[in-house]
UniProtKB/TrEMBL annotation:
This is TetR/AcrR family transcriptional regulator. Pfam families: TetR_C_11, TetR_N. Residues 37-56 bind DNA. InterPro entries: Homeodomain-like_sf (IPR009057), HTH-type_TetR-like_transc_reg (IPR050109), HTH_TetR (IPR001647), Tet_transcr_reg_TetR-rel_C_sf (IPR036271), TetR_C (IPR011075). The keyword Lipid metabolism does not apply. Keywords: DNA-binding, Transcription, Transcription regulation. PANTHER family: HTH-TYPE TRANSCRIPTIONAL REGULATOR RUTR, TETR-FAMILY TRANSCRIPTIONAL REGULATOR.
Amino acid sequence: MSRRTPTGAAVLQPQVTEAITEAVLDELAENGYARLSMEAVAKRAGVGKSALYRRWASKQEMAMGVICAYSIAMISVPDTGTLRGDLRASLDALTQWLTHPRFARILPDLVAETARNPELGEVVGLLVGEPKRERTAEIFRRAIQRGELPRDTDIDLALDLIAAPVYWRLAVRAAETGLTYLDDLTDVLLRALSATS
């Protein structure tokens, strides 16, 4: 027997959710996580606070839900047919994520906030870090199946090798990737992964 939606139950309207999502990202980019508030988001989105609470129970749940959805949507793991092609495409996607005009301002603040708030750090790792790593791990599984990498390849370490240089260059050094950086990094990563076999 199918269940009916109770009379008077709230129906979440996609355009309202989109307006709220954009408002959350704008507030995070402009003011940071510590100063983020449900009131400010509701005002910027042009909705009542009840619209937010119908979707999320707290500021943390709202922020992480929006950041997670935004980040996962930007993960691109195309199957180019080769490990080199997959690595290069993954580096492109990572660079686009880290250099996005809004997210480039959100991420450093979020990293600093997780250092002060370990509970938030666990949530960020669970909702943002792990899904991104799990999807990207697919390029190494495919390479192993194609015989490009040995079966005992340390995928967890390989994932660190992809993310660390790009994050360090863009977020820590504030340097650009330039015309050949990602190509050169791809070659270095391929040599490093081959050296571990």
